[in-house]
Amino acid sequence: MHLRDTRRPALLAGLTLLLLLTLAVACVIPVQTAPGLRGQVVDRTTGQPVANAIVVVRFDGRHGDQLPDRELLGHAEATTGPDGSFQIERYSRSGASLWPVFQSETRIVSVLRSGYRCPDPLHVTGVRDVRVEIEPALDQKDRQASCRPVASRRGEAEAHRVAWRELYPPSESPAQRAERRQLGRTLEARTALGYGANCSGPVVDLALAPDGMRVAFAVTTGDGVDLELVDITPAGTRASRTAATADDVPPRRLAWTQPGELVLWSPARLGGRSAAASIFSAGHTEVMWKNSQALPAAIDPNAQTARTRTPLEPDDLSDETDTRWLGRSFSLERSLDLSSGLSRDRLLVRREDGSKFDMVLPGEACGGARFGRPQYRVGAGGRLAFDLRYVEGGCHAVAIDLTSGAWSRIDASRAAGQCRTQRAMPPALLATALRGWTRELHDAMHGQGIDTGSTYALTIRDGGATSVLGRNAEGLAVTGEVPNFPISTPLDRIDITHVSPHGGGMRLAPDAGPAKIAPL
Fold first, then answer.
1. Which CATH superfamily is domain 31-167 in?
2. What whole-number distance in Å separates Cα of residue 335 and Cα of residue 188?
3. Which pTM was predicted?
């Protein structure tokens, strides 16, 4: 009698299931990669190789063609050998991709070597062998003036991190550092109470053309949005003109597919994704404005000569790789505005010659509630930056002169912004934003028998007068007066609860802008 082996079919079925799961995971979680490179660092004056130089490379990716937002993949570093050579391997990671096409870029963002200036960031995508020239520094201050920080994650560029600390020794004590960090957390928490985070319109989006020669923005009209265009010239900006009118349901984002084509786009739904050659596929975008004369000569069949310079994508000032900076560096410093109790943004600029100046940015950053973050786009020539800021009673498109600090509105809309008047927040956020006032609030609530551990609501009236609605130990509703709310806010009701936030009511923003209330 022959015994039948029942284990073999089960084993084959298990292996088949494992293979199918592997293929499914591979389809859902593609591998995102960026090209590596090898090269040599040399002395610009003598041409001799420079050993022991720390080279840091940044890998970026984007899900599409000319969208304004880049995704940081990571950094890598290498130290040059005796012949000045270095090599950095290809970067790879797994991750879910929102779009069928994933484009990657590689840049050299820092070269640190004692006695030498740091070179400008160098775009090396498509180049396998690169020659990096660095200049001898006049002194330590000359080195510091030329070097920019690298926002690498911990563990990615540790040798550069150590060398950077040696180049810029700490100038503040641990207590000062802790105080600065606490102020940063406080200001970040107060953003949730300000006008920029709670108000929207009339301008709801802004996008800069890839060549930096035009800026477009969307203005709400009631029935939809008007798409406005502003030309950027060496002398500044020209008056805006209406390019198109479009529906705004659902809200869609402005994007330039090329210097002469402006579109409205919305992300594809998970079930509607397709393996098309571009995210700008049928059903995802709508072309709103087109100008064939603005297309790059390299892709214009009627052009006689091709342009050798690839159009630049718009990017954020916080990204050190933007070559429109022309050798300058920027950092954003937040401090307390004593007139409003909210954050005041100062843009610190270091010019090409190492000299510094700073400017106070107008109002508050806005637009984040709709699309996630401010703009900070740098136009052609590097003189003007464009942003959405809450000024003059609404969210407006402004141009900021990066040489003088002057700013001006570039939209002509006279409509007021819409501000929500209610929102919910957890107790920890209120305590972080208004630590001292929260203690006074709780003392006042205890004195009136109101339980501070349960949900309660703050009602804010003109001049900051504030009352609280809560419950006592028996669960009965109790209303009482508490210290005046210490900062400017469009909110007239704040629910302190662990329940998820809600939108609350809306009202027109005041034409005069935020009222000045004495800060805590």
1. Carboxypeptidase-like, regulatory domain (2.60.40.1120)
2. 10
3. 0.63
